[in-house]
Design a protein that fits this description.
49% helix; 2 strands; 6% strand; PBDC1-like_dom_sf; PBDC1_metazoa/fungi; yst0336 like fold; Polysaccharide biosynthesis domain-containing protein; Polysacc_synth_dom
Amino acid sequence: MDVLSRPAEEFENDKSVEAIWAMKAYEHAEIYFNILCSVDPKDLHLSPEDDLIYRLFREEFPNLKIDIIIENELKSTKEKAKWRPFCERFKTVIEDYNYGTLLRSDSSMDYCEENTMLVTKIQFLAIEIARNREGINDILRSKFMPEPKRKDEQVIENS
């Protein structure tokens, strides 16, 4: 019998699985942030369905302030009721649409414990696509992009 086909009630929370998930989520966040700081966010595509996600997101949440997201507001009972049908629209469109993903609360800052919240993958995509298209993430390249190496540093590394 396949273990994954057994009822969920038979399993306890496995700390090693949680740790692996947390490492994967952090890895994704780190890679995304590095890319975000390296390219023009307006040119960044996060999924093949970016246009659809953005259009539906702004139809459903036209006034959502995306530069700084307050976790308690995003996860309030009222907001959850609005997000649930939005997310479910992508059930067959975006693979793993409901996987836990890390989102920066304040778009002008890097990921850190105080600036990170857990959202579904489709919420992450919707908010980050909007941040990229609306110029919210533009500041990151100038703020976090590494300084080019000086010639004397390059010579030392190549020795």
